[in-house]
Automatic annotation (TrEMBL):
EC numbers, comma separated: 2.7.7.1
Keyword Cytoplasm among UniProt keywords: yes
Keywords: ATP-binding, Cytoplasm, NAD, Nucleotide-binding, Nucleotidyltransferase, Pyridine nucleotide biosynthesis, Transferase
Stated name of the protein: Nicotinamide-nucleotide adenylyltransferase
One record GO biological process: NAD+ biosynthetic process
Organism phylogeny: Archaea, Methanobacteriati, Methanobacteriota, Stenosarchaea group, Halobacteria
Catalytic activity from the UniProt record: beta-nicotinamide D-ribonucleotide + ATP + H(+) = diphosphate + NAD(+)
Localisation: Cytoplasm
Family named by the database record: Belongs to the archaeal NMN adenylyltransferase family.
Pathway in which this enzyme or protein is active: Cofactor biosynthesis; NAD(+) biosynthesis; NAD(+) from nicotinamide D-ribonucleotide: step 1/1
Main subcellular localisation: cytoplasm
Name of a matching Pfam family: CTP_transf_like
């Protein structure tokens, strides 16, 4: 039995993440999705709460024959203990999946096997691009799994990101 761990901010969960899960699902029996920067929400860069991201992921992964766990992981000011922090919050896992250079380095230094994946259609399948389209009222729905559209509709997510983007001077 192999359990994997895949962390991201998932702001929002999009088809690039879903393609990566598709690949991971062929390699593990169980998968932990780490909801990174779990305390962040209501900004252009991080509009959605941890709870909303859990809903997006849980509903999108129903299609897979895979046991999944979504675990919120708050950020720490100290990178040196971040892997221990992750391990304290997550079910045990044998392999971590990430394309983020810092995440890869921290796991490898802690002796955890890391697997990367190709970037799928990165011109469009990028959280920043999805959020820009949400703010500009352009087509973002085609970039995310159907259940994510439903969750964003149910939680008035477009109204939120458009409203915070008027006052939030930080980058998208
Ligand atoms: N299109 C993609 N194909 C494969 N992996 C991806 C893709 N987009 C993101 N990832 C990977 O998924 C993980 C989580 O990514 P993250 O939630 O930061 O999404 P992002 O699209 O990079 O978002 P943002 O633009 O908000 O930074 C990272 O390891 C990232 O490299
Ligand atoms: N010191 C820390 O808190 C620390 C270190 C490395 C990654 N992280 C988090 O892990 C997640 C990585 O996800 P992304 O690949 O989506 O950036 C982010 O939420 C990031 O903030 C946190």
């Amino acid at each position: 039995m192999t359990r994997g761990f895949y962390i991201g901010r998932f702001q929002p969960y999009h088809n690039g993440h879903h393609r990566m899960v598709d690949r991971i699902a062929s390699e593990v029996d169980e998968l932990v999705l780490g909801i990174g920067s779990a305390g962040d929400s209501h900004s252009r860069h991080d509009p959605f709460t941890a709870g909303e991201r859990i809903m997006m992921i849980t509903k999108s992964l129903v299609e897979y024959d895979l046991v999944t766990y979504a675990v919120p992981i708050e950020d720490l000011d100290r990178n040196s203990v971040w892997v221990s922090h992750v391990q304290s919050m997550s079910p045990d896992f044998e392999v971590a999946y990430s394309n983020n250079p810092l995440v890869i380095q921290l796991f490898e230094e802690a002796g955890v096997e890391v697997r990367q994946s190709p970037m799928f259609n990165r011109e469009e399948l990028e959280g920043t691009e999805v959020r820009e389209r949400m703010i500009e009222d352009e087509d973002w729905e085609s970039l995310v799994p159907g259940p994510v559209t439903d969750v964003i509709s149910e939680t008035d997510g477009i109204e939120r990101i458009q409203r915070v983007s008027e006052t939030d001077a930080n980058g998208i």
